[in-house]
From TrEMBL:
Protein name: Dephospho-CoA kinase
Its job: Catalyzes the phosphorylation of the 3'-hydroxyl group of dephosphocoenzyme A to form coenzyme A.
Catalytic activity: 3'-dephospho-CoA + ATP = ADP + CoA + H(+)
Keyword Cell division in annotation: no
Native source species: Paenibacillus swuensis
UniProt binding sites for ATP: S10, T11, G12, K13, S14, T15
InterPro entries: Depp_CoAkinase (IPR001977), P-loop_NTPase (IPR027417)
Gene behind the chain: coaE
Gene Ontology cellular component list: cytoplasm
One Pfam family named in its UniProt record: CoaE
Length: 199
């Protein structure tokens, strides 16, 4: 069985992923895969450099994420082009890793951590989607505290994602992470039991 794990910025998705891993789930991190597909020498990085120029490469051959970010956040068309280059290989590698894991350990839960799962239209890839939820006001407070942002900056970052209430409404499983860690663990235990998963 596999599930897609998502949430909003500062809702506590990493905490829930760690709790699921501690129970024995196999975690596949989409952010790590996104970094993997653009390692020096990869065909994907070559395509990105062809589209955006060699100045987006560091002297050691790695991608200069800051420079590329400056280009794509100022230009919606450039961002669309980058997504077109990156998304297919990221999705293909995610599917490969999921299939390998499910073949190797068919009874083990595979959890794929995808921050922008709904925004990218990836729900079709998973048996179910788990959303880590906190109300937007708590999301805002945690983000301000975590990243030392102004209220306005934090609000802009939250606004760049699908509203958390919309994600909650779409989810197959909702883990409310607005209370204590113990409360979150209780909900995960209930999910684990309901699915008949073993530690």
């Amino acid at each position: 069985m596999n599930i897609g794990l998502t949430g909003g910025i500062s809702t506590g998705k990493s905490t829930v992923a760690a709790l699921l891993a501690a129970r024995g789930a196999h975690i596949i991190d989409a952010d790590l895969i996104a970094r993997e597909v653009v390692l020096p020498g990869s065909p994907v990085l070559r395509e990105v450099a062809e589209r955006f120029g060699n100045e987006i490469l560091l002297p050691d051959g790695n991608l200069d994420r800051k420079k590329l970010g400056g280009i794509i956040f100022a230009d919606a068309l450039a961002r669309k082009d980058l997504d077109g280059l990156l998304h297919p290989p990221i999705r293909a590698l995610m599917r490969t890793r999921m299939a390998e894991q499910e073949a190797a350990e068919p009874t083990r839960l595979v959890v794929v951590d995808v921050p922008l799962l709904y925004e990218s239209g990836l729900e079709y890839m998973f048996n179910e989607v788990m959303v880590v939820y906190v109300p937007e006001e708590i999301q805002l407070e945690r983000l301000i505290l975590r990243d030392k942002l102004s209220r306005e900056q934090a609000g802009q970052r939250i606004a760049s994602q699908m509203p958390i209430e919309d994600k909650k409404a779409k989810a197959d499983i909702v883990i409310d992470n607005s209370e204590s860690l113990q409360e979150t663990e209780k909900q995960l235990e209930a999910f684990w039991q309901r699915k008949g998963l073993t530690l």
